[in-house]
């Protein structure tokens, strides 16, 4: 019988979320990451893969205080996607906030568990500080080459974002994980439902840092891309999302996409059996 992901096995007694949506291999909790990372039992996750709010999008505070659509999207207001929470902190506040949840989430991870954090160039120094302050070992940086960006005369293109990664203590070299690339080349998704959504194939590649069949936590689930990628690649996944609109959009997307994917898998199995 296929195992089912059970939240009561992951969360401490009395800490069940008021709203959660999921399936056999995934769950997304509706609420604040700072609350729920403290609620998980020790050592229940094999990896953390997430795209936190950057609180970036400008060099001055008044620029960072704009809405997330104003900072990260060129869509007209009539077509704009919902704004998301937690992106208006100044750099010191953001670094402290990052360090706080990173410290608590490390307790919920197994020894040696990898962590991958997406970030841009502006917050790169701060996120590496927060990661190490929280007790993780910083092991390096991978690059997401988006290919396209707005050209600026006399300047380098800002066509990359970064994946700062590390581990919860020593990370054995004999883990059953293959050698992974340091650069991932994918364009931005065309039909986004989230302002800063990452490509599905990019997330399928990145999550391979987790041991096969492991349980992945995404504390900022957003569009649900990491959750979807994890389940399709054979992992279990738990997400947390605080913004009401994205909790609804993300869970709807994962449910719909996984249903279509499972039907496709069944159809392929049927065709294979007919060949035999």
Automatic annotation (TrEMBL):
GO MF annotation, one: N-methyltransferase activity
Residue stretches making up the DNA methylase N-4/N-6 domain: 46-168, 188-249
Record EC number: 2.1.1.-
Gene Ontology CC annotations of this record: cytoplasm
Gene3D superfamilies recorded: Vaccinia Virus protein VP39
GO terms, biological process: DNA restriction-modification system; methylation
Keywords (A to Z) from UniProt: Methyltransferase, Restriction system, Transferase
UniProt record similarity statement: Belongs to the N(4)/N(6)-methyltransferase family.
Protein name: Methyltransferase
Organism of this sequence: Hespellia stercorisuis DSM 15480
Top-level taxonomy: Bacteria, Bacillati, Bacillota, Clostridia, Lachnospirales
């Amino acid at each position: 019988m296929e195992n089912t992901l059970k939240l009561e096995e992951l969360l401490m007694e009395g800490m069940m979320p008021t709203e959660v949506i999921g399936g056999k291999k995934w769950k997304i909790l509706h609420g604040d990451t700072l609350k729920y990372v403290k609620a998980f039992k020790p050592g229940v996750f094999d990896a953390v893969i997430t795209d936190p709010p950057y609180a970036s999008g400008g060099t001055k505070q008044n620029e960072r205080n704009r809405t997330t659509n104003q900072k990260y999207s060129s869509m007209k207001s009539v077509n704009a996607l919902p704004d998301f929470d937690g992106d208006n902190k100044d750099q010191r506040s953001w670094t402290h906030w990052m360090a706080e949840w990173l410290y608590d989430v490390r307790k919920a991870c197994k020894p040696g568990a990898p962590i991958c954090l997406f970030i841009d160039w502006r917050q790169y120094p701060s996120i590496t500080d927060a990661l190490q302050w929280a007790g993780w070992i910083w092991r390096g940086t991978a690059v997401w080459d988006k290919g396209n960006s707005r050209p600026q005369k006399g300047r380098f293109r800002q066509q990359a974002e970064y994946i700062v990664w590390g581990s919860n203590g020593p990370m054995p070299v004999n883990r059953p994980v293959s050698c992974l690339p340091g650069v991932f080349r994918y364009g931005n998704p065309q039909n986004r439902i989230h302002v800063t959504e990452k490509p599905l194939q990019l997330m399928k590649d990145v999550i391979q840092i987790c041991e096969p069949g492991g349980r992945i936590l995404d504390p900022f689930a957003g569009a649900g891309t990491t959750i979807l990628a994890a389940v399709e690649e054979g992992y279990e996944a738990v997400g947390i999302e605080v913004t009401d609109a994205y909790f609804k959009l993300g869970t709807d997307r994962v449910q719909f996409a996984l249903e279509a994917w499972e039907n496709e898998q069944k159809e392929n199995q049927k065709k294979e059996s007919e060949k035999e």
